[in-house]
Amino acid sequence: MEFRAFSRGDLKYQIEYTPNQRRWKDNYVGKNNPICDEERWSEEIKYFEKGKLSEKIKALPTDTGGIYMFYLKGINLPFLEHYILYIGRAQYTNDENINLRARHYVYDKRELIKSMFSLWKNDIYYRYYPDTDNEIINKNEICLIRAIVPPFNTTIPNKIQKEPEIKAF
């Protein structure tokens, strides 16, 4: 799958999503992987409330690591429209957990992350999948990023090459 963020005029807020069937299937995390169970993911959390980090983000657990994502929730079909902007991982160590990682993004200096918040700050949601097995956390992050290719992730793990564009006509 490919996303493209545009910056021409009012198109700077546009994200194009193009599914790639082979990459989707090749990087599928597997139906037996618990990460595929929606019930195991956190509730949907609005990342910012009234311009500030939400209280729910501040209250995230400190006793787990896991996978997390920032996404947009559409306003036309909010039950169906979700656009994943960024996928990351939080290791479970003495110095890192899901709470610390989530709070870190407010101060993130990376240009793409700053751009994500600049463009979409009031519309960004956050969900996480708790896990304490760092090896599984790493594998799941790689599979999800490779399959989804979120537009604000700067690198695709394991050097996956993007498919060359082929003209339809």
CATH homologous superfamily designation: GIY-YIG endonuclease
Strand content: 15-25%
State the share of residues found in helices, binned by percent. 10-25%
The total of beta strands comes to 8
Give the uncertain stretches in residue-range form.
Answer: none
Radius of gyration: 16 Å
Please outline the major beta sheet. Answer: 4 strands, antiparallel
Name the structural class: alpha+beta
Shape: globular
First and last CA, distance: 21 Å
Report the top-level CATH class.
Alpha Beta
Which architecture per CATH? 3-Layer(aba) Sandwich
Strand order of the largest sheet: 3-8-6-7
Domain count: 1
Mean pLDDT: 84
CATH topology: GIY-YIG endonuclease
**Helix count?**
5
What sequence of helices (H) and strands (E) makes up the elements?
EEHEEEHEEHHEH
What would you say this structure looks like, in words?
The structure is a single chain. This protein is α+β, with helices and mostly antiparallel strands. The protein has helices spanning 21-26, 55-58, 98-104, 111-120, 134-148, and strands spanning 2-5, 15-18, 45-46, 48-49, 52-53, 65-73, 82-90, 124-131. The protein is globular and about 50 Å long. The relative contact order is 0.21. The model has no long low-confidence stretch (mean pLDDT 84).
Short descriptors:
169 residues, alpha+beta, GIY-YIG endonuclease, 4-stranded antiparallel beta sheet, two-stranded antiparallel sheet, 8 strands, 24% strand
Q: What's a quick, concise take on this entry?
A:
The chain is α+β, with helices and mostly antiparallel strands.
